[in-house]
Amino acid sequence: MPVAAPSMSWLAFAGRSSSSAMTRLMLGRTLERICKGVLLLCLLHFLIMMILYFDVYTQRFDLFSRFNNGRNGSRNNASGAAAAGSGHHFYYYNLSRPNTTLASYIATGSTQLETNQTPSPKPLPPCPEIPPGLVGRLLIEFSSLMTMERVQRENPNVTEGGRYTPPDCRPRWKVAIIIPFRHRENHLKYWLHYLHPILRRQKIDYGIYIINQLGEETFNRAKLLNVGYTEALKDGEYDCFIFSDVDLIPMDDRNLYHCYDQPRHFAIAMDKFGFRLPYAGYFGGVSGLSKKQFLKINGFPNEYWGWGGEDDDIYNRITLNGMKVSRPDVRIGRYRMIKHERDKHNEPNPQRFNKIQNTKNTMKRDGISTLTYRLVMVKRYPLYTNISVEIGKPPPRPFRG
């Protein structure tokens, strides 16, 4: 019996089945390749992460360096002297860090070692406005014997030239203390004996300058103060200036020797005036001005030869330039004066009253801008800096017939 030939519909079905199988086979191979690729990428990612992990780990803890130092510790101790004598030093360099070469480590090795051994100090805090070590009212007496050796032993932290800076804080002002001087060696011992401890307790960054007028011509206090201002600025970057007579000692260390928003009069209650301000415009004894304030009034007058008048002229300069004098409380601004006879060649100036009345006309042409003097010697002692100068002599007085 003859076999019947397959129908056309069955052949079509068989063709479609074969095509579908081929499509599934190709899709399966493609998915297999994709899976393998993803697996390889995951493996590569894992390896990269492990490498980075160990690299960061070694950078942070430097395990290899510690291991190397421990392993070679005894060897380095044995050969340390020889290495130091030959100038060779042994370092471990972690060359596994990215972008690192031996040459770069050699170039920066000494700097890194120095940085590791000497960390930068922390900045000092500002000094408190009211230092905590102040004691208040002081007992001031001048009967005990005073020597420079004793004062030096009492102030071991004061450096050459009478300089001191607080070691534990940063002062706002850098203060030059200016003292006009001639033939007052005994007074200076007491002044240094009392003032150095007071200034250190006040946390003042300061230097002390004794401006010594040479010769026996008439004394000129204000001109010496101008000289002190000029010479102190050659020695340091001062921004505050305290002008003090050598025979005045503060009786309270709360009378802070620094500058203020307005010119400062410190010695407002002296024992010789019954601890009272003698008159409203008094600016004598001890005063202070910032550098800006001092220049604003053209410094102090140069033409007051002899005793008196210059402090009133300074007061006039301050008020005429729109400033006011500030003062401490009368209970704090008390001073004791070392008793003495009036200095020779420092007699009262008979022209002082006429000069005081003309401050407005003279202050622009008589002051720090017209100062002339001859510097003879600068010598730094343990407790102060001595500046000896020649400042000339007064002009001849007009003849009165």
Write out key terms for the chains shown.
401 residues, alpha/beta, eight-stranded mixed sheet, 13% strand, elongated
Structure description:
The N and C termini lie far apart (179 Å). It is elongated, with a radius of gyration of 42 Å. The strands form two sheets. Strands 1, 2, 3, 4, 6, 8, 10 and 11 form an eight-stranded mixed sheet that branches. Strands 5-9-7 form a three-stranded mixed sheet. It has ten helices and eleven strands. The longest helix has 54 residues, at 8-61. Mean pLDDT is 83; it is low at 60-108. It is an alpha/beta fold and 401 residues long. Helices cover 40% and strands 13% of the residues.
User: What overall geometry do the principal axes of the alpha carbons give?
Assistant: elongated
The amount of helix comes to 25-40%
Number of helices: 10
Order of helices and strands: HHHHEEHEHEEEEEHHEHHEE
Brief characterization of the structure:
The chain is of the alpha/beta class. The protein has ten helices and eleven strands. Helix content is 40%, strand content 13%.
